[in-house]
Design a protein that fits this description.
Helix 1 runs parallel beside helix 3 and helix 3 runs antiparallel to helix 4. It is built from six helices and ten strands. With 205 residues, it is α+β, with helices and mostly antiparallel strands. The chain starts with a helix and ends in a 7-residue tail after the last helix. A hairpin with a 2-residue loop joins strand 5 and strand 6. The strands form two sheets. The chain has a six-stranded antiparallel β-sheet. It has a four-stranded antiparallel β-sheet with strand order 3-8-5-6, with no helix packed on it.
Length: 205
């Protein structure tokens, strides 16, 4: 399944002529043709599949590597230094990035809330390997990129399925915390959202 995703993603990004392309709503393809140095940036909630090459994050004072077949989930808006360590013009670093819809996650709470409990050991950056529960719907979703009518009708359904699969997976513990009412992560997410919406306002001390 990884090879299928890599093949489809390579075709899409080659036809776009760009290193970053929005294949579908919430789904981007990213490639980089050379290795680089650590660069700090703010990551928004996302699910990423590394299809080719190697990427490293600097987290809590250590390098966390991700190679072909690895996946990671970032649950909060957070700054993380990262760099591409294995990429070349002949074999660019390639990844799929699914931007997570927190509104969709909250709507799922109404349907599966009874199955959700808070996990105090959850991390805002979770690492794992690509599983069929994610790969199969992700492949179907990516396959809609060349079928606009199908994408309009079926895309939202598959996108919801992907959010559900991630939410209920072992890697989804912090995502579950985000929508678990009165959890610590839920309160942090609310504070981050408030800051983003009101950061231009004057603060009285």
């Amino acid at each position: 399944m990884l090879q299928k995703l890599e093949s489809i993603a390579t075709q899409i990004i080659a036809s776009s002529g760009q290193d970053v392309t929005m294949a579908l709503p919430n789904l981007s393809i990213f490639q980089q043709k050379q290795s680089g140095n650590f660069d700090g940036m703010v990551y928004h909630p996302l699910f990423c599949v590394v299809l080719r090459g190697r990427k490293e994050f600097w987290v809590h004072g250590e390098n966390v590597p991700f190679t072909s077949g690895d996946v990671f989930v970032i649950s909060h808006d957070m700054p993380i230094p990262s760099k591409i360590t294995d990429a070349s013009p002949e074999a660019p670093y390639l990844s799929l990035i699914l931007s997570l819809d927190l509104g969709m996650l909250h709507s799922l709470y109404d349907e599966v809330g009874s199955e959700i409990t808070e996990d105090l050991d959850a991390s805002s950056l979770s690492k794992g390997t690509l599983q069929s529960d994610w790969a199969e719907p992700l492949s179907r979703f990516l396959g809609l990129a060349s079928k606009p009518v199908d994408a309009e009708i079926l895309g939202p359904l598959i996108l919801k399925e992907l959010h559900f699969r991630l939410l209920m997976s072992p890697m989804g513990s912090m995502l579950r915390n985000l929508i678990f009412l009165n959890s610590h992560a839920n309160r942090i997410a609310g504070a981050i959202q408030h800051i983003r919406q009101h950061f231009r306002e004057t603060v009285t001390v």
